[in-house]
Design goal:
The protein folds into two domains: 81 residues, 60s Ribosomal Protein L30, Chain: A, CATH 3.30.1330.30; 158 residues, SPOUT methyltransferase, trefoil knot domain (Alpha/beta knot, 3-Layer(aba) Sandwich), CATH 3.40.1280.10. It has 258 residues and is of the alpha/beta class. The strands form two sheets. Strands 7-6-5-10-8-11-9 form a seven-stranded parallel beta sheet, sandwiched between helices. The protein contains nine helices and eleven strands. Helix 5 packs parallel to helix 9.
């Protein structure tokens, strides 16, 4: 163990990493955790600088960064999924106020109301990235942007995709001032999503699959659209629904030469 800086899971620095699995401790310190070389490289490529890097012996980042070498079992103890992939890094949280959200010309924005599952939000960030949309805005229930599952399911898109959280009334005013049409997905709406005009400046809003959009959100929408379905299922996974509309909006824009 001579080449290992930390050999025990009872080490205070490992105990601190274990605490950072919980949001209350991450927010208290203003940090978040990234696991594995792939996500770590994507975080660094986005311009983020790690505060601390813990690796197992032989990890390639040892040759280019100051790292703390940890026994594999001890590092696994600190992993969110109890399997560290050989690297755990700590980064400083970064703010995402709506005032800094980059609107750009002809924006295509995804809006998620009270979507709390980190995996769904991570998948939506990946969709924004894949479609080349403007970004993701959440409203309603507070979101833990730095949840390890969200970071993992976004495959690093969380580091690069523009994001903001805002109250519904604040969001509506912000969109109105920028002439962005709010399109809400509502079961039973007369217009199907492919029949709606999504080629202009639009914000596509989806809600949690168990409750859908709130009454206030539906009333605030400029247009409501439906996703026709057959069979016994009466709802789609919210990230799937968001992807359908986002890619339809991209298709319509492509047909216009955007």
């Amino acid at each position: 163990m001579s080449n290992v800086d930390i050999s025990s899971s009872t080490n205070d620095r490992i105990k601190r990493l274990v605490r950072l699995k919980q949001r209350i401790h991450r927010d208290k310190e203003g940090v978040f955790v990234v696991e594995g070389n792939l996500l770590f490289d994507r975080a660094r490529s986005s311009g983020l600088t790690p505060l601390e890097v813990f690796v197992t012996s032989g990890n390639p980042v040892q040759s280019e960064l100051k790292t703390t070498i940890v026994d594999p079992l001890a590092l696994d103890k600190a992993s969110y999924r109890n399997r560290s992939q050989g690297l755990i890094a700590v980064f400083e949280q970064f703010p995402r106020p709506i005032e800094a959200f980059p609107i750009g010309p002809s924006p295509l924005i995804l809006v998620a109301e009270s979507v709390e599952k980190p995996g769904n939000l991570g998948a939506m960030l990946r969709t924004v990235d894949a479609v080349g949309a403007t970004g993701l805005i959440t409203t309603g229930s507070p979101v833990d942007l730095f949840n390890p599952n969200l970071i993992r399911s976004s495959t690093g898109a969380v580091f690069t995709v523009p994001y903001a959280h805002a109250g519904l009334s604040e969001l509506v005013v912000w969109l109105t001032e920028r002439d962005v049409e709010l399109v809400a997905t509502v079961p039973g709406a007369t217009d199907t999503y492919w029949a709606a005009d999504l080629a202009g400046s639009v914000a596509i809003m989806v809600g949690a699959e168990d409750t859908g959009l709130s009454r206030e959100a539906r009333e605030a929408a400029d247009l409501t659209v439906s996703i026709p379905m057959s069979g016994a299922s009466d709802s789609l996974n919210v990230s799937v629904a968001a992807a359908l509309l986002a890619f339809e909006a991209r298709r319509q824009r492509s047909s216009l030469g955007d």
